[in-house]
Design brief:
4-stranded parallel β-sheet, 14% strand, Rossmann fold, alpha/beta, binds phosphoric acid mono(formamide)ester, 2 domains, 312 residues, single chain, globular, 5-stranded parallel β-sheet, 12 helices
């Protein structure tokens, strides 16, 4: 693997998930692999899980880590040939090559503006880093994809439910702020690669981009979706059609224990952070269906599998 931008960088997804199982059983078995290697993590946006789990993964491999909050750094210019007379102080072309001279692997988190879909969906920052960096780039959530989360999600589903045929539901839920579509887009990509046809349920106006929903099934009723579900993955996303906007929606889309009781004893999954009693009720989050804490714990396993692969 040269970079880890999306599922399509992974040669064999099932082998990678198998490797996650092995790492979970023996997290320190490869401690020499990253010796004298440096991971640099660039955060343009906040994080708890991604930052800590990726650092933990690197330490388990014997790597050193430097994290940089990019709000404290120079503002980057992204356009080639621009005359940099205004806000931007450093071109990504230079920054990428400088960071590459220090780092053996670079991770980056860079959220969308949610103002202009065409621009956001170009995923400019991470694509520029992949273009100009001379070391591997790890996507720690870009404008449109969150593959470290999705590998975790697939691993967690396999760990809990095995390889049997499953009804997997991706359910939209309410949130007080407009959120990116990256987690959901990425989840759908990974599920498609392992031939899981996801039932996506969201209110009208919240359909995800067709390039990600293709091959899956969209319904606009949670009742219909949850019937016989083995996995309910919950996530809010802002509208794609009316890009980045809140639309008027039914507040009863919140996930509750009563709704989970209508499933096939489904796993309740969420990438976290989650707003309790807005997105998911306490009684659902604290129920036996919920695997959200273990899912978050698995972030370190997935990150370790990816870093190990990139160190090859
Ligand atoms: N799920 C996830 O990426 O969490 P953080 O935003 O806290 O990193």
């Amino acid at each position: 693997m040269k970079n880890f931008y999306s599922v399509y960088d992974v040669e064999n997804v099932n082998a990678l998930v198998k490797r996650c199982h092995e790492i979970k059983n023996d997290p320190f078995g490869n401690r020499e692999k990253g010796k004298n290697k440096l991971l640099v993590l660039l955060f343009f946006n906040p994080s708890l899980r991604t930052r800590l789990s990726t650092q933990k993964a690197a330490y388990n491999l014997g790597m050193d880590v430097i994290c940089m909050n990019m709000a404290e750094g120079w503002k980057w210019e992204m356009e080639d040939g621009s005359v940099m007379k205004f806000e931007t102080a450093e071109h990504v072309k230079d920054a990428a090559r400088v960071i590459s001279s220090y780092a053996d692997i670079i991770g980056v988190r860079t959220f969308p503006t949610l103002k202009n879909k065409t621009e956001d969906y170009k995923d400019k920052v991470i694509n520029a880093l992949m273009k100009y960096s001379t070391v591997p780039i790890v996507n720690m959530e870009s404008s449109i994809l969150h593959p470290l989360q999705s590998l975790t999600d697939l691993f967690t589903i396999r760990e809990k439910k095995g390889n049997k045929s499953l009804k997997v539901v991706l359910s939209w839920a309410p949130h007080p702020k407009a959120l990116p579509q990256a987690v959901s887009n990425s989840f759908l990509q990974w599920m498609k690669v392992v031939n899981i046809n996801v039932t996506i349920c969201n209110p009208a106006g919240y359909d995800l981009d067709p390039s990600f929903t293709k091959g899956h099934h969209i319904v606009h009723s949670q009742n219909e979706a949850f019937n016989e579900a083995d996995v309910v993955y919950v996530k809010n996303w802002s509208s794609v059609e009316t890009y980045g906007q809140f639309l008027p929606h039914e507040k009863d889309w919140m996930i509750t224990k009563e709704k989970l009781d209508k499933t096939n004893d489904a796993l309740l999954m969420h990438c976290l952070p989650v707003r309790r009693n807005v997105v998911i009720s306490d009684d659902a989050l604290d129920s036996d269906n919920s695997v959200v804490i273990e899912q978050a714990g698995n972030r370190a396993i997935a990150a370790q599998a990816i870093l190990e692969n990139l160190l090859e």
